[in-house]
Design a protein that fits this description.
With about 400 residues, the protein is an alpha+beta fold. The chain has a domain of about 200 residues: Orthogonal Bundle (Fic-like fold). About 40% of the residues lie in helices and about 10% in strands. The longest helix is centred in the middle third of the chain and has 22 residues. The radius of gyration is 21 Å and the shape is globular. The relative contact order is 0.17. This is Avirulence protein. It holds the Pfam family AvrB_AvrC.
């Protein structure tokens, strides 16, 4: 099993290094990521338990060895802070990388670069047209291309290194004293609950949950709004034949029923702050994210997929592996904040390593939401169609 340092930053050390550099005061949050982390679990979804013996055995499988980690003798100041990180800039000789990938080839035009990584929500919540968001997108484009070059040359040799590279980029988009900055470099812990209430831009997901053919009827049993009829999509994956429960997406079938129930609650003599806090974490319109106790198993699987994806492959094979990696990383959401952006960063970096140029995702497509509402097979089959044009 991995040491968590491979997937987590020392945020204090990072801040010290950043303070020595010119401070980046831009603060362009990824608009699809407003998920909330909570310490307690008061919902009706059940308490976290221990892994089954089969899954526990999977989590103990060793990660693939990385020759890069033992052979490096020098690192950049920033890269040395993160353990097995992507921060070092030294290049390897061609004898060390006999199967070197081609690396980035063609380049997107300025307009397309300005949409890379944008969460293109419907109408009023779509922020992709703003100057701030365009700058954020061009930053993802440049940094993911650089990461692709480093995968191709053998400098990034594991998925944990690639994820650290994505984390380094995402932290760089936040000012030094940005509130909640540490959450972008902190892995979720088993036993905690990670959920997203489906309001504002996330309300656009509700019809997708209700219309999904795999969603099942279920009566909500949480506090205050108990009894509301919902549709529930339970996402699952398989690793070496073992089923892994992932996200649960809940949506009330009749939103008017929710409004009536809420009005009844507000008319009661209740503590408003307690009520709002409870409804933020327990609601019939809600995503309950993948239980963190499965993260070690999923990370091991991502390493195995990355090990395959960093080898020379036919374009179709590379695209399928990249789509699988994107699906698992987005579905796992291993960090408290920023996982969706990091998952897309990783997918684009791997595509660039293979000389494949990913255009922006289509208007109305938010890839992490598509992942959570799809099986792995379905997501892989539709992956290229999510983009404005086919990858070149």
């Amino acid at each position: 099993m991995w040491n968590n340092q491979n997937w987590m930053y020392n945020i204090d050390a990072y801040n010290q290094a950043r303070a020595a550099q010119q401070e980046d005061t831009s603060n362009s949050p990824r608009y699809s990521e407003v998920t909330e982390f909570t310490e307690d679990h008061a919902t009706s979804y059940g308490q976290a338990g221990s892994l089954s013996p089969e899954l526990a055995a999977l989590s103990l499988q060793p990660s693939p060895p990385s020759a890069a980690n033992s052979s490096r003798t020098s690192r950049s100041r920033l890269g040395s802070l993160f353990g097995r990180t992507s921060g070092s800039r030294e290049f390897r000789s061609s004898s060390e990388t006999p199967n070197r990938l081609p690396g980035p080839s063609t380049s997107l035009d300025w307009e397309e670069q300005s949409l890379v990584g944008a969460a293109r929500w419907p109408s009023m919540y779509n922020q992709s047209h703003t100057d701030e968001n365009k700058d954020y997108c061009r930053s993802m484009y440049r940094s993911s291309r650089e990461a692709g070059s480093r995968i191709a040359s053998g400098q990034i040799n594991s998925f944990s290194e690639l994820w650290n590279c994505a984390t380094e980029w995402r932290l760089g988009r936040l000012s030094y004293n940005a509130p909640g900055r540490e959450a972008f470099a902190t892995q979720r812990e088993a036993g905690s609950v990670f959920n997203t209430k489906l309001d504002m831009q996330y309300a656009s997901i509700i019809p997708m949950i209700i219309s999904n053919s795999k969603s099942k009827r279920k009566r909500y049993g949480g506090p205050y709004l108990s009894g509301i009829e919902c549709k529930v999509y339970k996402q699952k994956g398989k690793i070496h034949g073992q089923e892994i429960p992932l996200n649960e997406l809940w949506a009330a079938i009749d939103q008017r029923q929710v409004a009536v129930k809420l009005q009844e609650v507000y008319n009661q003599d209740v503590d408003f702050e307690v009520l709002e806090d409870t409804l933020q974490r327990n609601h019939p319109n809600n995503i309950v994210h993948t239980d963190a106790r499965y993260l070690s198993v999923i990370k091991g699987h991502l390493e195995q997929l990355f090990n395959q994806a960093k080898s020379p492959l036919r374009k179709r094979e590379a695209l399928d592996l990249i789509a699988r990696i994107h699906w698992w990383a987005a579905s796992a959401a291993p960090d408290m904040r920023g996982s969706a952006a990091k998952a897309e960063f990783a997918a684009r970096a791997l595509a660039n390593a293979h000389g494949i140029e990913f255009p922006p995702f289509r208007d109305g497509i938010v890839p992490d939401i598509e992942a959570m509402l799809s099986s792995e097979k379905n997501f892989v089959e539709r992956y290229s169609s999510f983009m404005e044009r086919r990858p070149s």
